[in-house]
């Protein structure tokens, strides 16, 4: 079973499985295909995380998060007066982190793969070279970003039919430059991206436009194999991404707090349930801001304590079930989160499970297509804290663990998660959505375990988000009744109704039969769960 944000990428993964490849092989082929058919977030110019649970019990994670270029520095997004220019860290060539995706896939393949780059890159090369029919939503999206494409000639060449003519639904969209780049990766794996012509062209494009990434940055990039975060929830095992993503740590901290409440008895999306959720969220998100960053630069992060049952019990004792607690003292504000990023889940016939969440940061990243290379560059430098030492009510966060340093990975919220039962993968879950990702994944876990929903119900059910500051509970439309909203307001919650939150791609493996149930989120129009 393969569940992704684009039906063609799901089919690519299934084809690899049908031909005898394992879940890691399929994850690489699927990830490359998404870079072609789902350019908003699928990528080779960005980065992300893969969590693996093999049928023999082996559990591991691959970190291919982007890194700050070697010439980057703490104050690079401040002007000469030390002022931050709004969203400068998300704009232009300076916002681009050193991409990690191809290195991450290469590392996972070397460790667990059974198929070659030649085989696994072929479907993506073909999709880029021969093209594929654009859906209505993709054609509309390309049109919607037209003013961005026009800023960069290579982007306009990729995403506009001509300067004045847009692609239409059903048009065959070809990406010849991307096909050439993917062929180099197909021939040489990691070196096809980080060395030779791809690296030369990327470094030249950077140099010509004031970017920092050099051939040295590319050659020096390393993916890392790491031990995922592991926790338990009501007898299930929770396996999720460790720093530099905050996802697994915050997820386990929240679940540990919530384990002490009879959530199932409260009723799904009742006022009592949403209150308990928000109280757990505000506490875990406060810890996220305070403590988390790149582990290679922050040796003293208290991850073990944050994910311990004892710490959760201490936090639970501070929660009243009748009234809202003040957010821990701070006036931090966080900017809105876009629904960028993409997640996919794969389980093969043997029962090996792989979850991948990867991203360009914003939808289409920096919106810059690398000249002559055909792929979009991320704007992940925007995930670092950009004003050292300044944490205030205007939205600035300057806490030290996530300040820019050369070679450092920026803190992420991506939460590719596997829930195991009796030592075997049971549920595979992940979502896009910036900081909302962690809360989205948590609610799908609770829907499955506390509310005994099937996977389609669990993925579809309405969700909320609270992230400590701003001190607001965001609810999708029709999450709960007006009565319950009034009860929440009487407890002291400030509510804000939102459009929608996340796009979960999930699988549940029925333990008695081994049947795999896949569910792509109805919030996503081109997505598909494909099995065989
Ligand atoms: N860029 C979104 C994340 O890493 O969480």
Write the layout of secondary structure elements.
Layout: E1 2-4, H1 7-18, H2 23-37, E2 47-53, E3 59-64, H3 101-112, H4 117-130, E4 132-133, H5 136-144, H6 146-149, H7 153-159, E5 172-173, H8 176-188, H9 191-194, H10 196-208, H11 215-220, E6 224-226, E7 229-233, E8 236-240, H12 247-258, H13 263-266, H14 271-291, H15 303-306, H16 309-316, E9 342-347, E10 353-359, E11 417-421, E12 424-429, H17 436-449, H18 455-460, E13 464-465, E14 473-476, H19 482-491, E15 495-498, E16 505-509, E17 516-520, E18 528-530
Parallel strand pairs: 14-15
Antiparallel strand pairs: 1-9, 1-18, 2-3, 2-10, 3-6, 4-5, 7-8, 8-11, 9-10, 11-12, 12-16, 13-14, 16-17
Helix pairs in contact: 1-2, 2-3, 2-4, 4-8, 12-14, 12-16, 12-17, 14-19
The structure holds glycine.
Glycine (GLY) binds next to loops.
The biggest sheet amounts to: 7 strands, antiparallel
What kind of assembly state do the chains in view correspond to? single chain
Helix proportion: 25-40%
Rg from C-alpha positions?
A: 22 Å
User: Going across the major beta sheet, what is the strand order?
Assistant: 6-3-2-10-9-1-18
| Spatial gap, N to C terminus | 7 Å
- What's the overall average pLDDT, rounded? 95
Our count of domains comes out at: 2
Number of strands: 18
Bound molecules: glycine
Give the uncertain stretches in residue-range form: 329-333
β-strand percent reads: 15-25%
Secondary-structure-derived class: alpha+beta
Q: Work out the helix count.
A: 19
The best one-word shape is: globular
